[in-house]
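Predict fold of Aerotolerance regulator BatA; 359 aa.
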Amino acid sequence: MFHGPSAWFLLLLLIIPPLVWWMVRRKRETAISFSSTSWLSGLTPTWKQRLQWLPSALRVAAIILLIVALARPQEGRKHTVVDSEGIAIEMVVDRSGSMQAMDFELDGQPVDRLTAVKDVVGKFISGDDTLSGRTSDLVGLVTFARHADGIAPPTLDHPFMIKQLDNTQIALNRNEDGTAIGDALGLAVEKLSALGEEDQRKLKSKVVILLTDGENNSGDLDPVVAAELAAAMGVKVYTIGVGTKGRAPVPVVDPFTGRRTFQMAQVNIDEQTLKTIADATGGQYYRATDTESLEKIYNEIDQLEKSRVEAQHFVDYRELAIEPIHAGVWSIPPLVLIAFWLLVTQVVLSNTVYRKITE
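Predicted 3D structure, encoded as tokens:
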């Protein structure tokens, strides 16, 4: 490409054909008086005679290169500088026994609550047709039943995080079952606060998305106290109450036949506590009764918590008239230098090998 206004110099190339025509015509008109030249027609031309056009060709080539150089040919190299401020998100997921209630669906088939949560959270992190994903965000995972477990620290290694979520199992053992909401929230806040100084500097905000289908009945830390701790540490908490309220179908295995059947079991969500947690931290409480509403909730949170990503694009131009041209492994001298060499060669040839006595 050529530099905008300088490209008009390319119009000077239109004078090249008339110039060549004038040079050829002028050469033909050069003559000396002699009685007869018929006997010269039988002589074999020497290499000097065959290449006598060379000085003129070198001159024309030099003029063409100088005109092109005036038009300022350029080579642009695009550069992009990305400046981003991400969000640290701690996913806090309930895996208590009540999460096996089969009141959600995937692809038209009933699934337990945890399976639906895995699917929706995976799309929230990785993105799909409607979600862009959390590419620039640190995402961590805390699960809880009777105890809270820090499964994955806030990380940009999202495939690892999603794999850990997929490996999460519902707590079916009585000794393991329970709902330690306060401990889980406290652990999530601790992990967000423990991020390195460099990560903290690049963060736009810190967020916890707490999802549960029950009431706090285990652990040492009260959920409201944990919310106050989150607020003090500048962590916003979105809470999601998941599942139907009242009775829900829960799979049970007959100890005698081994057959899997469903029984209606009493389930309850402490919505008031979840609302209190959200209000105390500047977050919001959501209620998801099916897969569709759960997807909408994560879509809304995705819109509320946007990372700031600014990309600056600029082009670095190289002036090919005065800078070498790189073509693969080859490096071609600047156009001006080539034109100079052609003119020097033309002058040397015209004053030595092709020196003329008369014009």
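The mean pLDDT is 86.
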